[in-house]
């Protein structure tokens, strides 16, 4: 288990741009150490780290760039987020999956899937959902709010039922004390262990295997499409050849018939000529006999 003071509680904040990760880091640390303002653009471009004592507990808080930051491509953002593993060496005790209270959008769902993809399933037992914008509850409890969203219930369930609500507008430190206690409970549940570099490498291996599988499937698809195209071209070629063959045969047949008809006409003409010659000779013979 983890005891206060003698061990650094290492926490990594992950989530989409604009959910209040930097403001949450400032609330936890009690200092303005992370740049935070209301903006659609991520204020954190690279990982940032605060290390110090909070409520008698030595903590390290790592802020990561917002996933789905449109200024950078997916690969760059993923690379920047994975830097946090180095910042949290030898490994974070908890991933704080920061979600702003309100409608759980498709973009946020994609972000959660992206977190799972980057850090792997092993990160689930080292994770907690941290809802920001607690003032939006307005008298409703977080449990009542969760009851209305099966998607959020599923997310919390994936994080072993661990969640906490922050109101970053409040200066009340009770919410921080409660968060630290919940994180200590998670670490205790995990037998004092933290997310390790091996887990991260396993997640990377899974991603690489999936990439290779996708590439293999694409190659297979291209091969199938090429074979299909080849088959269609072969069929088209064979049809064209068959058509040409029939046309050639038809032309040869036409020419043969023409030749036959020509020969027939020639024979008829020859026969006619012979007949005329015979008749001529016959007349001449008759005339000669008459003259005698």
UniProtKB/TrEMBL annotation:
Pfam families: AIG1 (PF04548). GO terms for molecular function: GTP binding. InterPro entries: G_AIG1, GIMA/IAN/Toc, P-loop_NTPase. Keywords: GTP-binding, Nucleotide-binding. Residues 6-204 form the AIG1-type G domain. CDD domains: AIG1 (cd01852). Residues 238-292 are annotated as: Disordered. This is Myb-like protein X, partial. The lineage of its organism: Eukaryota, Metazoa, Chordata, Craniata, Vertebrata.
């Amino acid at each position: 288990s983890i005891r206060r003071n003698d061990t650094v509680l290492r926490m990594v904040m992950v989530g989409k741009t604009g959910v209040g990760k930097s403001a949450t880091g400032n609330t936890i640390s009690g200092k303005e150490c992370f740049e935070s303002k209301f903006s659609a653009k991520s204020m954190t471009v690279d990982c940032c780290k605060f290390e110090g004592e909070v409520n008698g507990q030595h903590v390290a808080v790592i802020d990561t760039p917002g996933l789905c930051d449109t200024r950078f491509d997916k690969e760059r953002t993923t690379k920047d987020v994975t830097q946090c593993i180095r910042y949290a060496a030898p490994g974070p005790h908890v991933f704080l999956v920061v979600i702003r209270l309100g409608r759980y959008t498709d973009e946020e769902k994609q972000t959660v899937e992206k977190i799972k993809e980057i850090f792997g399933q092993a990160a689930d037992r080292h994770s907690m959902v941290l809802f920001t914008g607690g003032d939006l509850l307005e008298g409703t409890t977080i449990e009542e709010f969760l009851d209305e969203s099966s998607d959020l219930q599923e997310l919390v369930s994936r994080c072993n039922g661990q969640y906490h609500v922050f109101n970053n507008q409040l200066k009340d430190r009770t919410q921080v004390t409660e968060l630290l206690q919940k994180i200590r409970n998670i670490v205790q549940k995990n037998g004092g262990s933290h997310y390790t570099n091996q887990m991260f490498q396993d997640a990377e291996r899974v991603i690489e295997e999936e990439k290779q599988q996708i590439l293999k499937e694409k190659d297979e698809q291209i091969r199938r499409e090429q074979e299909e195209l080849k088959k269609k071209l072969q069929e088209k070629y064979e049809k064209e050849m068959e058509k040409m063959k029939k046309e050639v045969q038809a032309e040869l047949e036409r020419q043969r018939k023409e030749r036959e008809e020509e020969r027939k006409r020639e024979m008829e003409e020859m026969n006619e000529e012979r007949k005329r010659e015979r008749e001529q000779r016959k007349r001449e013979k008759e005339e000669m006999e008459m003259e005698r």
